[in-house]
Design a protein that fits this description.
309 residues, 8 helices, Aminopeptidase, 2 domains, single chain, alpha+beta
C-alpha cells in the first residue's frame, strides 16, 4: 500500500470533492465546497505560492494539506501549512509525507517559518513535536444550533445607527474593505496582517464562493460602516462567521453584537440550521459575545511554529 502525495487538479471536480470530504472527516468545523476549494487554489495572488495537496492510497484521498506564504503578513518569510488526515486512515504515513512535501515547498519559495494549526489532542500534538514544531497560542471552534429558537431578539438601534447587508455594497465594496482592513490589523494572532491590496481582497474575499452577501450584516453609524459580521454559507444549512469586528472609534458600543445578532437571525430565517465560528483563545470580548448567543466550544487547535533551515 503506497501513499501518493500530489497537487489537486482544479479542472477535476473529483479532486475538489475528495479534498472537501477528507478534510471534513478530519475537521468538520471548517466550511468548504468544491467550488470554494477551486477558488482558493486558482484565485490566490502569485506571490502567495498557494498549494492544495492530497494524500492518496489506491485512488482514495485520505488526507489534505494547504500551504503557502502569508501575503498580508507584515513580516516576510511567514508560511503556513495545515495537514489533516482522516481519523480512520491515520498511522499509514500520509501525514508525514504531506508535511514533508509542504515544508519542501515553503523552503523553495523563501519561507523562514512554518505556522501550523494542530488539533489539541495528545496524538496530534505528539506528531507536531516529533517533527520539530513548538506550540504557541490556541484557538477554539464553537458551534450553535440554530433550530432551538434561543437566539436573542434584535435590540433597539442606538441613535444614528442603521443596518445594511453586504448586498447593499455590491456596486462599491471599498468602504467594507477599509473596515475589514482596520479590524484585521487588530486581530490577535501570531502573524500580524495588513490588508493593503484592494484588488486581491475583491478576488480572494469579496467574490469568494462561500461569502453570503445577503446574510452579511453591516452596521452604519451616521451613515458610515462602523461594524460588520461577514457570513459564509455552504448551501447545506451550515453558516460560518468569517469575521466580526468594529472600527476602533466605535468599540464598546455593542455594535459587533448587534451585527452578529442580525446576521444570525436572518441566517436562521433563511434555513440555516447550524452556526460555526472560530475564536482566538485570547479574544475574550468575542468569546463573551459568542457565549451569550449560546455557542459552545466543540474543538480546540493549537498554533505550532517551526523555523525552516
Amino acid at each position: 500500500m503506497t501513499v501518493l502525495v500530489r497537487d489537486i487538479r482544479p479542472g477535476v471536480r473529483a479532486d475538489a470533492e475528495g479534498f472537501c470530504a477528507a478534510r471534513r472527516r478530519a475537521l468538520p468545523h471548517l466550511l468548504a465546497t468544491p467550488e470554494s476549494v477551486v477558488h482558493d487554489l486558482t484565485r490566490q495572488r502569485p506571490g502567495a505560492h498557494h498549494r492544495l495537496l492530497v494524500a492518496e492510497v489506491d485512488g482514495e484521498i485520505t488526507g489534505t494539506a494547504e500551504t503557502g506564504l502569508s501575503p498580508d503578513s507584515t513580516e516576510p518569510g511567514h508560511g503556513y501549512l495545515h495537514v489533516y488526515v482522516r481519523p480512520d486512515r491515520t498511522g499509514r504515513g500520509a501525514g508525514s509525507l504531506l508535511l514533508r512535501t509542504a515544508e519542501e515547498h515553503l523552503a523553495t519559495v523563501g519561507a523562514t517559518k512554518a505556522f501550523a494549526w494542530v488539533l489539541d489532542r495528545p496524538e496530534h500534538r505528539a506528531f507536531a513535536a516529533r517533527h520539530g514544531y513548538t506550540p504557541s497560542r490556541s484557538g477554539h471552534f464553537l458551534r450553535l444550533d440554530l433550530t432551538d429558537g434561543t437566539l436573542p431578539p434584535l435590540p433597539p438601534l442606538p441613535p444614528g445607527v442603521t443596518l445594511r447587508t453586504g448586498t447593499d455594497y455590491t456596486g462599491d465594496p471599498r468602504p467594507l474593505f477599509a473596515l475589514d482592513a482596520e479590524v484585521t490589523s487588530d486581530e490577535p494572532g501570531d502573524i500580524t496582517a495588513e490588508l493593503t491590496d484592494y484588488p486581491a481582497w475583491l478576488t480572494e474575499t469579496w467574490h469568494h464562493p462561500l461569502l453570503d452577501h445577503a446574510l452579511t450584516t453591516v452596521v452604519l453609524a451616521d451613515g458610515v460602516p462602523a461594524a460588520f459580521s461577514a457570513a459564509h454559507t455552504d448551501g447545506a444549512g451550515r453558516y460560518g462567521s468569517a469575521m466580526t469586528g468594529t472600527a476602533r472609534a466605535h468599540r464598546g458600543r455593542g455594535l459587533a453584537r448587534l451585527a452578529k445578532t442580525d446576521s444570525l437571525r436572518r441566517a436562521r430565517a433563511a434555513g440555516c440550521t447550524e452556526a460555526i465560528t472560530g475564536n482566538d483563545a485570547g479574544n475574550a470580548p468575542m468569546l463573551a459575545i459568542n457565549k451569550a448567543f449560546g455557542y459552545t466550544i466543540c474543538a480546540t487547535e493549537v498554533r505550532h511554529v517551526r523555523t525552516l533551515g
